[in-house]
Write a sequence for this structure.
């Protein structure tokens, strides 16, 4: 299947990826973050993580976490951690993980992953 046949892929080859995480979680990809978050929540009140990145090198793993290729870590963007309700989507203010904490943590992950990949490439 080519990117033009995938309705969740933008013309630049990127997508919005959303996940509710956990063993019984769900995930979705879409061309916008709201649609991705709503599809992942499946009409139920839930916390949803949203990222933006290359479709070909990123996906959601079996436990609902984000998997991405280290060589594309510099292209990944943490959009946010949202509380999705039946009629609303708002940034999380939950004490376990706020929207801001999510974004800051994922920016560090992506940066660290990219730095490690660059170092490995220099050693080759």
């Amino acid at each position: 299947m080519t990117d033009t046949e995938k309705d969740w892929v933008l013309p630049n080859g990127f997508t919005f990826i959303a996940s509710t995480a956990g063993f019984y979680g769900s995930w979705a990809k879409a061309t916008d973050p709201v649609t991705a978050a709503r599809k992942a929540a499946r009409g139920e009140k839930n916390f949803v993580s949203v990222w933006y990145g290359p479709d070909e090198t990123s996906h959601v793993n079996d436990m609902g976490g984000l998997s991405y290729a280290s060589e594309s870590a510099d292209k990944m963007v943490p959009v946010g951690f949202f509380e999705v309700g039946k009629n609303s989507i708002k940034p999380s203010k939950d004490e376990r993980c706020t929207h801001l904490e999510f974004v800051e943590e994922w920016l560090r992950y992506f940066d660290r992953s990219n730095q490690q990949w660059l170092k490995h490439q220099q050693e080759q």
Remarks:
- Residues 99-123 form the longest helix (25 residues).
- DSSP finds two helices and seven strands in the chain.
